Amino acid sequence: MGRVSDRRWRPGETVVERFHRPDGSIGQVHPLRVLEDDGRVLRAWLPAGTPIIGSRLADGRLMRDAPLEERFRIPRVAVPDSWHGASTLRRIPEDEWSSVWWFFDLEGRFKNWYVNLEIPLGRTAGAVDRIDGVLDVVVERDGSWRWDDEDEAEAAIEVGRLTLEQFDRLRAEGERIGALAERGTYPFDGTDTDFRPDEGWPAPELPAELSPRSGEGSAPARR
Predict the structure, then answer these.
(1) Which residue, 130, 158, 199, 222, could crosslink 118 as a Cys pair with Cβ 3.0–4.6 Å?
(2) Does the keyword Hydrolase apply (predicted)?
(3) What's the pTM value of the predicted model, to 2 decimals?
């Protein structure tokens, strides 16, 4: 059995997923509605339209608008934003270098899986903490899969955003995930692809000290 945390959350509670940067600062913050938590694996829901803390480059540009060679060289700043375009169910294990996100369109139909490769940092009061690994894996409904953001991962290594050792561990995790997808085993066996959120639960909210009251952006989520 993997690492089990003493911190556990009850179904219906809100917990935030915080993406730390290597220098210890916090980048994006996503509020999640807890579905299930046993201290090792958290399953939670982030519906489209939920306010989040996003990030932009310090000069005001979105990361995707900057040339690749600049994306990890210019400081980033936190900005009010919203999660948009799709809702996600997330499986976040304490002892794995990835979390699996089920993507659902705005009508609630399952689209595909997105596997965010991450460095786990454990839990704090009200938060699960990770470092985004830049490199990701996309798994389609038929079990086929591909790497995502390989070019960004290489750029991140060049400037020290990721070490080679971390990258090797993240890539090995991606290969492990890909093998599960090819075999059609959990979590890529159809489990939760028919998920519907409890209609009685409101959307998760950011903690009051982080909750934006104006100026919500619409940038795609990146850490």
Answers:
(1) 130
(2) yes
(3) 0.90
Q: Is 181 helix (H, G, I), strand (E, B) or coil?
A: helix
Task: Please list, in sequence order, all residues whose beta carbon lies within 8 angstroms of the beta carbon of residue 73, skipping any fewer than 6 positions away.
Answer: 159
Listing DSSP states for 194-213 in one string gives: T----TTSPPP---TTT---
Question: Per residue in 135-190, pLDDT tens?
Answer: 999 999 999 999 999 999 999 999 999 999 999 999 999 999 999 999 999 999 99
Count of residues in the chain: 223
Tally DSSP H helices, then E strands, for the chain: 2, 10
Q: Read off the pLDDT of residues 46-97 as tens digits, 9 standing for 90 and up.
A: 999 999 999 999 998 988 889 888 888 999 888 999 999 999 999 999 999 9
Q: Alpha carbon of 26 to those of 79, 110, 111, 126, 161: distances in Å? A: 12, 30, 29, 15, 14
With CA atoms as reference, report the closest residue to 179 among 140, 145, 136. Answer: 145
DSSP, residue by residue, 130-156: EEEEEEEEEE-TTS-EEEE-HHHHHHH
Residues 6 or more apart whose CB falls under 8 angstroms from that of 213 comprise none
Q: What are phi and psi of 141, to 5 degrees?
A: -60, -30
Structure tokens at 172: 């090995």
Neighbours of 66 (CB within 10 A): 16
pLDDT digits (tens, 9 = 90+) for 45-57: 999 999 999 999 9
